[in-house]
Design a protein that fits this description.
Layout (H helix, E strand, L loop, with lengths): L2 E2 L6 E6 L3 H13 L5 E7 L11 H5 L14 H6 L3 E4 L1 E7 L4 E6 L5 E5 L2 E4 L3 E3 L12 E3 L3 H13 L4 E5 L3 H12 L3 E5 L11 H13 L3 E3 L4 E3 L10 E4 L3 E3 L2 E4 L3 E3 L2 H5 L24 E3 L6 E2 L6 E2 L4 H15 L13 E5 L2 E7 L2 H6 L4 E9 L10 E9 L5 E8 L7 H9 L4 H4 L16 H16 L2
Parallel strand pairs: 1-7, 2-3, 2-8, 3-4, 8-19, 10-17, 11-12, 11-17, 12-13
Antiparallel strand pairs: 5-6, 6-7, 9-18, 14-15, 15-16, 20-21, 22-23, 23-26, 24-25, 25-26
Length: 466
């Protein structure tokens, strides 16, 4: 081993992870500090940087035709900005007392230590891969990186059969089900939950279930996968539960992700209940003045419940990176928290949520009422008006908005942004009914569906007083 980088007058910032949070932090710090003042070294164990993991299902499904369309900034572009980016290099140890990291060249195995003045941990998340018999067999894929996406596409191109099984029915699961339907596969989704999309309440998840069934997807709920049987050639041939087997020529694991914090844990850095790193508002790791963390490896403050939660989203990762880069570069910025907004789709069905589900509210000790309405995306008489269902939670006595869920067709999902802003502002559902939203028949009914459900929530609150 060798100690690289003798210390000079300038500072060195080391970044672990070359995707959204890490490279946003590096780029922002570079904007604020020139190379003579701040050296930036970034380690990335994969082949790509600054890519959209959220776009991988649409690349697999054919909506995005070129992998490079998912890359926001190439390694060459980062290096042109005086960032020492080292691809195919994995950090294997963080020595906090010594302010250094050990890195290993993935291809050669060579190891070296690099010292730092400032450290950014942006190690992301890892797909949940349960320890089941056959889970590592050829034909079984997780989807987290561009390399994962390419491996899946290679398998699809080489596979003669057209039966696919997706394990899990969260965002990744339903998006991969759509991708495989678009590829002409017969798709079965095996889900351990009561309904797909556990990020929704079950009554709203039931709407997603019906729509997926209508699209020709076989939905299997309340089913625990026990093993992945293989054939004589060693390839996966089915997904087995306690009751039956579902034939498969390819299997995609869409169970979700966990924060990739093994390095941080080994270094003694503080982790939360979800195993994500804990930071302050400036995204500094708690108790460590010169270490920051952001992206899918951290826990964030839920502004509605007041509790820490784990949400892996590219929107948060990019914001974290901007905050970290600003602070590491000598400026000042904070990340106040989230309200838990997310949107997705499966074919033409749009799915959105923000704030708390019913079980979240109960866990937080909140008393609440619910209201659910059915409406349309446009005036009912205007061509193309599409149905949507909107559900809203409001706190008893105060009337504070707690959460909103929307399931519908075109024009449904982005309406959740109205509720996201209202949650961030701490609005009541009564206050929301007076919001001055845009109206014209091609865009909305006279009363926007979000306002209609808010009015109904107000009525539920009044009824609950008696």
């Amino acid at each position: 081993m060798n100690m690289s980088g003798a210390r000079g007058a300038r500072e060195r910032m080391v970044v672990i992870g070359g995707d959204a949070a890490g490279m946003s932090a590096a780029s922002q710090a570079r904007r604020l500090r020139d190379p003579e003042e701040l050296e930036i070294v970034a380690f990335e164990r994969g082949h790509f940087t600054s890519f959209s993991a959220c776009g991988i299902p649409y690349w697999v499904g054919g909506d995005v035709t070129d992998r490079d369309q998912l890359i926001a900034r190439t390694p060459q572009e980062h290096r042109a900005r005086a960032i020492d980016l080292r691809l195919r290099t994995e950090v294997t140890e963080i020595d906090v007392p010594g302010s250094r990291v050990r890195a290993r060249d993935v291809d050669s195995g060579a190891e070296s230590w690099t010292s730092y003045d400032k450290l950014v941990i942006a190690t992301g998340a890892r797909p949940i891969r349960p320890p089941l018999p056959g889970v590592d067999a050829p034909g079984v894929h997780g989807v987290q990186t561009l390399d994962d996406g390419q491996a899946l596409l290679d398998t699809l191109a080489a596979t003669k059969g057209r039966r696919a099984v997706v394990v899990g029915a969260g965002y990744i699961g339903v998006e991969m089900a759509e991708a495989l339907i678009n590829r002409g596969y017969e798709v079965t989704v095996v889900n351990s939950g009561q309904e797909p999309m556990s990020t929704l309440d079950p009554d709203m998840g039931r709407l997603v279930h019906r729509a997926m069934t209508d699209l020709g997807i076989t939905m299997v709920n309340d089913a625990e996968v026990t093993r992945l049987p293989t054939g004589e050639d060693g390839r996966v041939r089915a997904v087995a539960t306690e009751d039956t087997e579902y034939p498969a020529d390819v299997v995609v694991l869409g169970i979700g992700v966990r924060p990739e914090t093994a390095l941080a844990k080994a270094a003694g850095l503080p982790l939360g209940d979800h195993d994500g790193l804990l930071t302050d508002l400036a995204m500094r790791v708690r108790g460590h003045e010169n270490i920051w963390a952001g992206g899918d490896c951290v826990e964030v403050l839920d502004l509605v419940s007041g509790r820490e939660r784990y949400i892996a989203l590219g929107t948060h990762a990019n914001k974290h990176g901007q905050v970290i880069g600003t602070n590491a570069g000598g400026g000042y910025a904070t990340f106040p928290g989230v309200v838990g907004t997310a949107v997705s789709k499966v074919c033409d069905l749009e799915i959105a949520r923000t704030g708390l589900r019913e079980k979240d509210a109960r866990r937080a000790g909140l008393q609440y009422v619910t209201a659910t309405i059915e409406s349309t995306s446009r005036a009912g008489y205007y061509p193309g008006a599409a149905p949507m269902t909107v559900k809203m939670l409001a706190e008893r006595r105060t009337g504070r908005l707690l959460g909103t869920q929307i399931v519908g067709r075109e024009g449904a999902a982005k309406r959740v942004d109205i509720a996201a802003v209202a949650l961030t502002a701490g609005m009541t559902v009564d206050g929301m009914t007076s919001l001055d939203l845009g109206y014209a028949p091609p865009f909305s009914p006279v009363w926007d569906p979000v306002l209609v459900v808010a009015r109904k929530a107000v009525n539920e609150l009044r009824s609950s007083e008696f």
